[in-house]
From TrEMBL:
<dbReference type="GO" id="GO:0007099">
    <property type="term" value="P:centriole replication"/>
</dbReference>
<dbReference type="GO" id="GO:0005737">
    <property type="term" value="C:cytoplasm"/>
</dbReference>
<dbReference type="GO" id="GO:0098535">
    <property type="term" value="P:de novo centriole assembly involved in multi-ciliated epithelial cell differentiation"/>
</dbReference>
<dbReference type="GO" id="GO:0005814">
    <property type="term" value="C:centriole"/>
</dbReference>
<feature type="coiled-coil region">
    <location>
        <begin position="54"/>
        <end position="123"/>
    </location>
</feature>
<dbReference type="GO" id="GO:0098536">
    <property type="term" value="C:deuterosome"/>
</dbReference>
<keyword id="KW-0175">Coiled coil</keyword>
<keyword id="KW-0963">Cytoplasm</keyword>
<protein>
    <submittedName>
        <fullName>DEUP1 protein</fullName>
    </submittedName>
</protein>
């Protein structure tokens, strides 16, 4: 898109230079025409030749005026194109800035989520260790309970046996 803008700028500068040359030629032709008219007034005996020259210069002057009008229309079109290009550049710049802001916001949000995930993982790891420790304690207590139960049954059985003997 940048290359397109540069190309359009070059075209605009070229058209401006052409316009200036045409204006200068038009002024020179107008000056020549004025001189010839003055010369015509002074040289009545060379009138047919002067009339022919004047007509040629007037024709050229008319063509130059038409070309100048055409150039003015082109200049107006180029100004419209310049304005359009400028608006497009501004729009592009605004869009680029909006996207940068959005990316920055999303990056910050991602960073916050990564921190939250790391915190949750750390807590989960801690809870897992706590659960393992509690499970080991319960396994030990269960083993102790089973040992005590079997001892109780043995003693109860002995007690019953002793009662029967007595």
């Amino acid at each position: 898109m940048e290359a397109g803008f540069s190309e359009m700028r070059n075209e605009l500068q070229s058209q401006d230079a052409l316009w200036r040359r045409i204006q200068l030629e038009c002024q020179q032709m107008h000056t020549e025409l004025q001189k010839i008219r003055e010369y015509k007034d002074m040289q009545e005996m060379h009138q047919p030749y002067c009339v022919q020259l004047i007509e040629q210069l007037e024709n050229k002057n008319t063509k130059l005026l038409l070309l100048a009008q055409s150039q003015e229309r082109q200049r107006e079109e180029l100004n419209e194109i310049r304005n359009h290009v400028y608006r497009e550049e501004q729009s592009h710049h605004s869009e680029k800035e909006r996207m940068k802001t959005e990316i920055s916001d999303l990056t910050e949000e991602l960073h916050q989520k990564e921190i939250a995930i790391a915190t949750i993982m750390e807590k989960a790891s801690l809870l897992e260790r706590q659960l393992k420790m509690e499970l080991e304690i319960k396994d030990k207590l269960l083993a102790k309970q089973q040992l005590l139960d079997s001892q109780y049954k043995v003693m109860s059985s002995e007690n019953t046996h002793l009662k029967e003997m007595v």
